[in-house]
Please model this.
Amino acid sequence: MQKKLIIQVALVAIIAFSLGELVFYYDAYDDIQDTIVSTLCLSCIKLDPVARLEFVFETANGEDHSEFVLENLTKGPIFIEYRSDVCKACDDMAPIVKDIFGLSFEKSETLYESIIYNGTNVHFYHINLDHASKMQMDSFSKYDKDNRKGVPMFVIITVKYDRGIIKPCYTTAYGTLGIETELGRRNLLTNMIDDAIKLYEQNHEGYKYP
Amino acid sequence: MNLRFKRLISQVIFFFFTNLGFKIEGIFPGIKSGLCYPFFYCHACPTASAACPLRAIEIGAYRGNWNWRYILYPILIIGFVGVLTGRAVCGWACPIGLLQRITGKIPKKLKKKYPFVKKIGQHRIEPYFRYIKYIVFLGFVVATPILLGFMFTDICPVGYLVGTIPISILNPGQFTPNEFFYLALVIFILFLILIFTIERGWCRYFCPIGAMLAPFNKISILHVSVNKDECVHCNICSDLACPMGIDVPNMERDPECILCGKCIEACPKNVIKFERK
Model:
């Protein structure tokens, strides 16, 4: 009996020590909080968000647009694909996005490319939230229009007229866009980009980098 | 205060803490912690306050991209609770246990009304069904996420109950079913049938977290013990009390025991008790 008690106490001590190590030295608590608890798990709810593609001016959290966005908007619309390492919908959507922009990259990679898309300069960002910089992480909550906190999230930022001023505006689509077929998803994304380019062409002359 | 009432209070308190993620504008911001539940609950629930341990393990092992922190963290939390109390969390803390406590009255009535229902529960192959939960855990939480990218959470009935349904109600028209929705719906319906026909049916046969906790019953500090010398084998504890269908008089640190204490209360000879060693 004494032997069993020693084993039990030793096990409790080892587990408690290892847990402490994971929490304090390896940030397991923060990682679980950021990537699981605070994020809407689309796999868990077995649902995909329906795409609503109206362009809006106000960022989702009310903060200013990110610096890299404001700067690149002088040269063309910006398309951002947010994803994480473990995300089936991201894996499903990645080939479509790569195909649209004619790019090839790894999912863990954070990538920026300036691309000529149908004759217009489009700035493409691939941001993996598990490997992103703080500025890129912060941009996620700015463009999470419907407060879904889920990935994949596709954002296109362009410029539009608002009561006398040309301002940045954006639209956001989530998950597999609520569409079952690959062709349908591709069409929706290209429509989103085409709309953004049209707005950009109409308004970019009046856009001033603040 | 009897054990049954104490357990109810404990389950209600844990249910409250499990759902501390709710927000009241301007009054309470909601708590979204970085902890993993040591029991079965889904972080997709709008009011959830911690993570599902299964999801963390799945993410850690997904397609062989090993992230040991995500695997070890929930295992250590469950291990810690397991060494201290074995499967007591199933009986005293798990919200799905609380749900089955409510639905458990129906299978009890069925057992009394239809003797064949009781016979099914006592069939000699019934104990083998209990291994299904280990297969579910190793198969769908560990193996398929590594090999196929398919995860238990894709079809989890608890995610459906506390995630899909409330989110669909709170956000009408904003979501559409994904490819696993209808399969998950079928599994959810089977889950409901199960918990309404077999007492603690989910815990007995399918719960992957029960599968993780069960081995700890063999070494846990807190456990239920039977004084076999004084037991008269009246079987009241097994036949009428135990929700897990355990042969209580002959049990020795049974992996299925959820330490609910019903056998302790039911024993006319007071030979069953909680023990700490």
Q: What stands out?
A: Chain B has one domain: 3-276. The radius of gyration of chain B is 19 Å. Chain B is about 55% helix and 5% strand. Residues 3-276 of chain B form one domain.
